Amino acid sequence: MTLSLRGVTKTIPLGDGRQVDLLRNVDFELGPGDSVSVVGRSGSGKSSLLNILGLLDQPTGGSVELDGQSLLGLPDRKLSMIRGRHISFIFQQFHLLPRRTALENVWTPLAHIRDRALWRQRRELAARALARVGLAGKEDAVPETLSGGEQQRVAIARALVHRPRYVLADEPTGALDGETAHGVMDLLLDVTRSQRAGLVLVTHDVQHAMATDRQFRLNEGTLAPLVPEGSTR
Amino acid sequence: MNSALPLLSSAWRELRVHRVRSLLAGLSVVIGVAALVAVVAMGDLGRAAVQEQVERTVGRPATLSVDLTANGEQTASRTSVDDNAEWIRTLGVRALSRVESRQVQLDAVEPSSAGPLGTTVMGVDAGYGSVKRMDLLAGQWLPEGTPAPWAPPLYLNAEAAAHFGGEHEALGSRLSLAADLPTQGIVLGVVDDSRGEPVAYTDIRSLRKWYSESTAPETAEILMTVRPADTEQVTSAVLHHLGAAGLTGGERVHRVDDFASYERILKLLQAVLGAIAGISLVTGGIGLMNLTLSQIQSRVHEFGVRRAFGASQSHIFAIILWESVILTAVSSLLGTVLSAGIFNAVLATVPEFSGGIQFPVTAALIGSSAAVLIGVASALVPALRAARLDIIRAIRT
Predict the structure, then answer these.
(1) Most buried by CB count within 10 Å: which residue of A132, B103, B303, B351?
(2) Which residues of B touch A91 (CB under 8 A)?
(3) DSSP labels, chain A
(4) A chain contacts of residue B305, beta-carbon cutoff 8 Å
């Protein structure tokens, strides 16, 4: 069960006719239970990498594979199904749906999976997920009434409620203060490990990156290990 | 998950989340449907009112008149009128009445401030009340089968009664029918015949007692109600029968109720009003599309998030479509209930029509279906736009 990128490139045109390479020949693999972090400066291609891994965007070259099967060229319906089942996101700005309760936000992924049983159990599953991230009793709270840390916890519960294989976290602590950020980071690592979900963590914070199993640096579209092989941390 | 249950559930929840927008959009549909149904209902009400008026003044459908005035001056003999009436009864007509009219001076026997009233007295049979709609405003009818009374029983219409003091005051009055005759009639009732001019009705047998056959009535006719489908057949048979008796002329028998011409006008009016209501429904639909489009703009972020969590393009499309269907269906239901309330309220003010008019269920169904279709049509473009949103840009919105 591996999500892989093989020789992926992403090029976008600039307004003056030139092109810029966001990703250059990237090879990447993520298995269940893996935790991988990617660090890099702004504009280094981190978000592009996550978007392609999350099937939100198509690479210009190379291939995206799930268990060795190329996902390129699949119709939207199929890609949406794979994304809904197996891949989940945690965003820096939380991206919770306003005016919906925490419970409704958490069960959002369950509304898009073709599984009637999951839909019927949505309340229980969402409540359990909220309890897992320490928000029992906040089921009916709307995002507008929650703190940043609480909102990101709701987002983590939403990302894991349907037990996806892979969680892609794009600077999940970027909008939080230091202490809250640490708490959220610990929670994220804890729950993904307990569910044996593969985690890709894009972050600026090397300290957080070091909490994952593997670390990469993305520099001008090129992905390389943060710590060169053979060297010690 | 494209199965209906989560979609419906999501759509209903989203409508509740966007309460104000839903209320505004729904309101336009409610008004459109209510207007459409109300227009049809009012058309039915108007139709019933006109039909009632026609039934009062000229007769129920189909009323045939057999004119027994010869050469415009001489009437057929009483025997001829009676014989023809008896023969026509054998055709199985629904109702029949002989009618003779005379111009008389009605005058109160007891001292009264009301002077004499020059009016038409019509001698009719009991069947007259079946041929024409004639509602009793005051007094009572003579029981059927009553022998010809010595004093003519008089039924004044509202206009004649007004001359003698009003509906209730005129009841029981004794009125002389002519200065040179010792005839006095008793007012037994006041009727609404919508003629607009004073008329007194009496039993034809009583009328004949007091006028010799030599004093010919101004008009003599036989009125009858037949099944509309039998009109031509009965007309032809009566004409043939009269011709054999020397009473020739095709104009002697003719249909007098002209409801069909009123109905054409009513249908035209109803079509015009229906078109106006339809336009309001379409305008509501355009408003709905406008609101849905602006809503899509404000929900771009939401659709981006949903797409990230597995919603396909078709799912987003279906959510918006279902929202519109639910909104228009619920609004149509409310519009129908509202129009039914208005309909009943209006009907309560005109109880005389309440028996003949039903709530236009067909119009309600057509209006509601049209509203749902308009809802679907108005959601198509916004739904397509939402489905085709770029996910990454949508999330960043």
Answers:
(1) B303
(2) 395
(3) --EEEEEEEEEEE-TTS-EEEEEEEEEEEE-TT-EEEEE--TTSSHHHHHHHHTTSS--SEEEEEETTEE-TT--HHHHHHHHHHHEEEE-TT--PPTTS-HHHHHTGGGGGSS-HHHHHTHHHHHHHHHHHTT-TT-TT--GGGS-HHHHHHHHHHHHHTT--SEEEEESTTTTS-HHHHHHHHHHHHHHHHHTT-EEEEEES-HHHHTTSSEEEEEETTEEEESS-TT---
(4) 95, 97, 108
